[in-house]
């Protein structure tokens, strides 16, 4: 009887090991790089506007699609596709044709060693690195970049206006996502560019309430937010300027295929939208999504009406 | 490719040394898990045994703990961290909530599973409620109680990783920090260590489960086994 139980147990263990290795083996290796084959859809097909897995991207996607439709170009949306790894492939295999992206991150995606930081430098660099089957349209002044903030109280007490002033403060710490510890613009960059040693307090809520609480209650000196964070609206937090351009610009930039980029009518419509969009608009659009829980299509419609693009 | 990189990451001395090395992190992780198990045990075991023995509050508690099982741990952790701050309190509480239901269920179902004729026999012999509980119900319920503990321990070890959502040291850092920078070898390496701990914890509780079978039950089973093997 004991022997039988033992054999059963061994079988279980072997089965679990087989399952584990099976799981690890099946599916696509996330670290593998695949090259998507480019397909060309017929010219009569509507432009499919995709969006990434966060609200701002979905709102921008709606704005592009509605602007195209309002000006006589057929367009549909395919929201919430996922991260850059996924949607770049979707563009290349033809399942989407256009998506709102951010210049600095897009540049880093195609060239991880890029060091350009100002809006203009990033913009011209990104145009050089996009693959031959993809293209970017006009860059917008609207920016959703990483930004380092302190409480207004601390900024006044210690006279902090820029990252260069951080030398005046001892025992520096920052509430930021874990990747901030390794990214070039993160802890290593602060050390190299501004000569300050900062301790990372990793919080994975992407600049949410826990991150803001940490800096507001003094657990950390600083917090990493983004320029479009709704938490910047009430004025309790002060953005530290970045005179040495440690943090790369992240202007909204439409990523598309070369085929769409040669459609002059569509390009003119999208570029007109790009020109009118501002960072303050992005904050307002995000606030409508977070605070009032409005759907992306309604938020986009209201923005287009107020900018008389409809 | 990824397996080779995971292997070289796991075997690098730098992975294991220092205040943020695997050695220290494993120690912290096991300690946090043990603390959670003890906390959940202190709450759930007496309550579960009392419910099993008396039958009081059974409906309420069963429904309530059933509901607790449905709480997403990461959501609870996030909510608690806004209230309790970034310390150990929030994950400890969130994980205790996760560990209470299996221990509670093991305790009351263990006591309830005791043959009512045995309890009647105890009463007939003039044993008090406490004596019945201590000398008959508890020893007979022990394997089910341990099995509840086993399930709680396995869940705690697997789920404490979510605490790394907050600035908390432990093995979860490899998963959360690794994911943030797409360092898959680090994530896989950290997961493998947790899997090994899981298997060891599960194995130890399996042995304990076998060890706590009451002597009388074991003798009876032995006889039944002997009879059946003779019959074959």
3D architecture notes:
The complex is a heterodimer of chains A (310) and B (232). By secondary structure, chain A is of the alpha/beta class. Chain A folds into 2 domains: 47-143 and 249-306, D-Maltodextrin-Binding Protein, domain 2; 146-239, D-Maltodextrin-Binding Protein, domain 2 (3-Layer(aba) Sandwich). Chain A contains 12 helices and 10 strands. Chain A has helices spanning 2-25, 55-70, 84-92, 103-110, 119-129, 152-158, 187-194, 209-216, 258-261, 264-276, 279-290, 296-306; strands spanning 47-52, 75-82, 98-102, 134-136, 146-151, 172-176, 198-202, 222-226, 237-239, 252-257. Chain A has a 5-stranded mixed beta sheet with strand order 2-1-3-10-4. Chain A has a 5-stranded mixed beta sheet with strand order 7-6-8-5-9, sandwiched between helices. In chain A, helix 2 crosses helix 10 (264-276), helix 2 (55-70) packs across helix 12 (296-306) and helix 11 packs antiparallel against helix 12 (296-306). The radius of gyration of chain A is 23 Å and the shape is globular. Chain B is mostly helical and 232 residues long. Chain B has one domain: MetI-like fold (Orthogonal Bundle), CATH 1.10.3720. Chain B has 11 helices and no strands. In chain B, helix 3 runs parallel beside helix 6 (89-112), helix 7 runs antiparallel to helix 8 and helix 9 runs antiparallel to helix 10. Chains A and B meet through strand 7 and helix 8 of A and helix 5, helix 9 and helix 10 of B.
How are the SSEs ordered, and which strands pair?
The complex is a heterodimer of chains A (310) and B (232).
Chain A: H1 2-25, E1 47-52, H2 55-70, E2 75-82, H3 84-92, E3 98-102, H4 103-110, H5 119-129, E4 134-136, E5 146-151, H6 152-158, E6 172-176, H7 187-194, E7 198-202, H8 209-216, E8 222-226, E9 237-239, E10 252-257, H9 258-261, H10 264-276, H11 279-290, H12 296-306
Parallel strand pairs in A: 1-2, 1-3, 6-7, 6-8
Antiparallel strand pairs in A: 3-10, 4-10, 5-8, 5-9
Chain B: H1 2-11, H2 13-16, H3 22-54, H4 58-69, H5 73-84, H6 89-112, H7 116-124, H8 129-159, H9 172-180, H10 184-211, H11 215-231
Helix pairs in contact in B: 1-10, 3-6, 3-8, 4-6, 5-6, 6-8, 7-8, 8-10, 9-10
């Amino acid at each position: 009887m004991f022997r039988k139980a033992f054999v059963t147990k061994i079988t279980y263990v072997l089965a679990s090991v087989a399952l584990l290795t099976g799981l690890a083996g099946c599916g696509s290796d996330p670290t593998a790089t695949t090259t998507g084959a480019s397909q060309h859809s017929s010219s009569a097909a509507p432009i499919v506007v995709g969006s990434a897995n966060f609200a701002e991207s979905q709102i921008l996607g709606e704005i592009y699609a509605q602007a195209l439709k309002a000006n006589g170009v057929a367009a549909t949306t395919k929201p919430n596709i996922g991260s850059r790894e996924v949607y770049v492939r979707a563009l290349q295999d033809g399942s989407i044709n256009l998506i709102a992206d951010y210049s600095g991150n897009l540049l880093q995606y195609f060239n991880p060693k890029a060091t350009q930081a100002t809006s203009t430098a990033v913009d011209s660099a990104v145009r050089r690195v996009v693959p031959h089957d993809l293209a970017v349209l006009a860059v917008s002044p609207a920016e959703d970049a990483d930004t380092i903030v302190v409480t207004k109280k601390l900024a006044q007490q210690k006279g902090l206006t820029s990252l260069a002033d951080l030398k005046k403060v001892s025992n520096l710490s920052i509430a930021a996502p874990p990747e901030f510890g390794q990214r070039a613009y993160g802890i290593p960059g602060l050390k190299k560019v501004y000569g300050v040693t900062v301790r990372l307090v990793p919080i994975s809520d992407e600049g949410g309430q826990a991150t803001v609480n940490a800096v507001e209650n003094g657990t950390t000196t600083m917090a990493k937010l983004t320029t479009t964070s709704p938490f910047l609206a009430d004025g309790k937090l002060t953005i530290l300027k970045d005179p040495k351009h440690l943090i790369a610009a992240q202007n909204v930039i439409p990523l598309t295929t070369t085929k769409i980029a040669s459609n002059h009518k569509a390009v003119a419509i999208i570029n007109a939208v790009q020109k009118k969009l501002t960072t303050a608009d992005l904050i307002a659009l995000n606030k409508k999504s977070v605070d009032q829980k409005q759907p992306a299509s309604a938020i986009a419609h209201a923005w287009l009406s107020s900018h008389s693009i409809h | 490719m990824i397996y080779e990189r995971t292997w070289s990451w796991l075997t690098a001395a730098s992975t294991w040394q220092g205040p943020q090395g695997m050695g220290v992190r494993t120690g912290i992780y096991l300690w946090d898990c043990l603390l959670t198990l003890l906390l959940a045990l202190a709450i759930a075991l007496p309550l579960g045994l009392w419910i099993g023995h008396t039958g009081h509050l059974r409906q309420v508690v069963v429904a309530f703990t059933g509901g607790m099982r449905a709480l997403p741990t990461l959501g609870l952790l996030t909510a608690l961290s806004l209230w309790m701050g970034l310390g150990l309190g929030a994950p400890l509480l969130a994980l205790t909530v996760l560990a209470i239901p299996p221990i509670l269920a093991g305790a009351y179902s263990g006591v309830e599973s005791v043959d009512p004729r045995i309890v009647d026999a105890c009463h007939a012999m003039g044993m008090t409620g406490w004596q019945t509980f201590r000398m008959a119900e508890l020893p007979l319920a022990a394997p089910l109680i341990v099995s509840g503990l086993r399930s709680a321990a396995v869940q705690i070890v697997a789920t404490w990783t979510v605490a790394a959502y907050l600035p908390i040291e432990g093995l979860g850092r490899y998963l959360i920090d690794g994911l943030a920078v797409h360092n898959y070898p680090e994530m896989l390496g950290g997961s493998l260590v947790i899997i090994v701990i899981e298997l060891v914890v599960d194995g130890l509780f399996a042995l304990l489960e076998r060890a706590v079978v009451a002597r009388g039950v074991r003798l009876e089973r032995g006889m039944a086994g002997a009879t059946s093997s003779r019959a074959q």
